């Protein structure tokens, strides 16, 4: 039997990162590399060969999540698409996994400036889709063109993120209110 | 010489918490209890007698910061007062200490649900003053009375908080834009 070391390496990596994400979602940043080894069936020394520290392992797992394709919103109405994306974020705040992973991302980033940049990349990747719809609103004259659409999206989702970090969920009604206020604030 | 154990206890506590805050501001959440012991001159076992874990020590230090009185904004114009408070938050994001302490708060809270509630109390204490001014705007008819002023303040400061967590500062111009958009969004 011939083995392909590159493919085997990718499979090991994916098992390790998936086990890390599952543990993060269940329990937050308190996970240990021993637990990841047990859950993934990959030896601890193999994990440490790829990820020098527990924090780098957490950061890599979170980044693998950010790189997963967000399902496109099939909607010709950009306002409806923005509301749908905001409701999806709010729904995440009402799970255990979402806030745990968010807190773990920040907690990992608190240990080094390199990981702070990873947290930044994580948020930016998550914003991209909504910002595209906001840009369409600006092009059609429904949003001020001199306001960065990223700022408008931050005003919609960052209150939900900070509440989630503080253990508070956002209801559907509250998510709709955030969208309404932010779009009204940046209306021409 | 007579000693007052209660007063001595308070002095020890204040030295420990101040040393913790200084280390948090300088280096973020990576501090150890050994370093706090060295910086405060208080023995490690005394520190552990008061704070069962490193995370509880960090949380207590951050809460002592939240309890420090915020200097009142001497301004009869609530809009100007809100902008001044937003500019103060933005100025904090341009320091090393502010983002480091913010990240450390979240990182400590990632380890237990009890500490998540402390993070929530920290943010609420910080919001109180601005929310008071927003309430005055609603009373004078300059802000919708059916919108919770906390939501308006969240739309102003939470983008700055999340950027700070991600290692990005907020400029004065950006802070003013956030205020302008949020107040316009919630205008009657």
TrEMBL record, chains A, B:
InterPro entries documented for this protein: Homeodomain-like_sf, HTH-type_TetR-like_transc_reg, HTH_TetR, Tet_transcr_reg_TetR-rel_C_sf, TetR_C
Q: Which PROSITE patterns match?
A: HTH_TETR_2
Q: Which UniProt keywords apply?
A: DNA-binding, Transcription, Transcription regulation
Q: Name one GO molecular function term.
A: DNA-binding transcription factor activity
Start and end residues of each HTH tetR-type domain: 10-69
Q: Which residues form a coiled coil?
A: none
Ranges of the DNA-binding region feature: 32-51
User: Under which name does UniProt file this protein?
Assistant: AcrR family transcriptional regulator
């Amino acid at each position: 039997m011939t083995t392909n070391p590159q493919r085997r390496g990718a499979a090991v990596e994916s098992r390790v990162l998936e086990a890390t994400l599952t543990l993060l979602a269940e329990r937050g940043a308190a996970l240990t590399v021993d637990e990841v080894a047990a859950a993934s069936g990959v030896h601890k020394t193999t994990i440490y060969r790829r990820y020098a520290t527990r924090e780098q392992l957490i950061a890599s797992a979170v980044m693998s999540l950010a790189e997963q394709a967000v399902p496109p919103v099939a909607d010709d109405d950009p306002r409806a698409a923005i509301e749908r994306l905001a409701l999806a974020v709010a729904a995440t705040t009402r799970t255990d996994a979402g806030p745990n992973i968010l807190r773990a991302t920040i907690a990992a980033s608190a240990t080094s400036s390199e990981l702070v940049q990873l947290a930044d990349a994580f948020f930016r990747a998550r914003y991209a889709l909504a910002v595209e719809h906001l840009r369409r609103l600006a092009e059609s004259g429904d949003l001020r063109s001199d306001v960065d659409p990223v700022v408008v999206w931050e005003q919609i989702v960052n209150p939900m993120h900070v509440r989630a970090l503080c253990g508070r969920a956002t209801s559907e009604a509250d998510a709709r209110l955030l969208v309404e206020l932010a779009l009204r604030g940046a209306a021409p």
